[in-house]
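Fresh eyes needed here. Have a critical look at this protein's tokenised backbone.
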Amino acid sequence: MILAHGKLYENKEQGAIIASLKAAICETLNGPKLDTEEVILACDRLSKKAEGGAFDEIAKPLLEFAQVDYATYLDYCRMFSEKELRKKLDTELCGLSESETKISEHLFRERRPLGVLLHIAAGNVDALPAYSVIEGLLTGNINLLKLPSGDNGVSVRLLSELIAECPALKEYIYVFDVPSTEIETIKTLAGLSDGVVVWGGDAAVRAAHRFIEPNTKLIVWGHKLSFAYALPGCPDDMLCSLAADICKTNQLLCSSCQGIFVDTDDEEELRSFGERFFEILKKENQRYGKAPRGMRAKNTLKLYDDKLENRDTIFAGEGVSVVIRSDSELELSYLFRNVWIKALPHEKIISALKHQKGYLQSCALFIPDGDTKETVIESLKRTGLTRITGPSLSTMLFGEAHDGTFALREYSRIVDVYR
């Protein structure tokens, strides 16, 4: 199903709707501006409905599949409350006003939306496409959403419910089910847009560069890598929290831990740390239940190949693994509770990580307070990393930036008027 003008349509209607989209967009832009206050209050009402269980029939199966507890789901629902959205606006837009503000004797300034945003969504988080659209609405944009392949209908459902709460949004939300292979259709949508928001890895970003014209802003929330950094003797309880985070996310999020760098250059110390973390990871794996069988089988073959080539020290069993590698490269793990561990003395952090520019996101730090911790933090900041956290690496806090910037600012423009 697709969504346009506040109504659901069969996919076969998509071509005709897209053909009429330019006229519809111009008509909307000729009308009154979208009222941010209405958007906030509509999201708040939807948030309260979700907290009250209105969407449990679609939420609970997804939570069970993703192994996310209901309390975490309620926390995410509260991100759309009036209080949190007002805080988000204040933080990300830093007081930039939607109405003209006098800057000097003859200069007046206001914030405006880019105009039209095309959101090319990734499928690794079910509600992410709808969230991206809501950020576009908060800045007053018309939003065109290209659903990810395999979308389960959550985005259309949530956005339809939002329109029901605020009918004025019906001309600001369009959801299309366009396969990534239909390049000409995507080009058409991009050509109608002032900005294209891409969620995805390198392939998605390269593709976007091919079909986006130079006069269209490209906003990339691309593939990122996250990791942990630890002293060899860091406490087991901290590592337990990290192992739990790895099991909960199956390492599928940009903020998920792919591996652990250890502040050492001693091989035996590294091996001992790896063996200790393997035992911790096995216990957390038992507590959370095993990863999907297909992925476990796939990773078993990869690990077997590694053993045949005798490249690494491998601790594997019960559906999890820890692979101790001799290099200091940040890389994607095998995912689904398979973690690499590498030596990286703190004085070599910048030389080891700086060339990974653009891919760095989060680091979970396992170092006690003191001079070494502050030195490590400063080195991590200089590599280009955008987030330094505690053990629960994938827990997002209200008010955080996203990949080192603010989405609402990216979706806005500044207009200066001389009077």
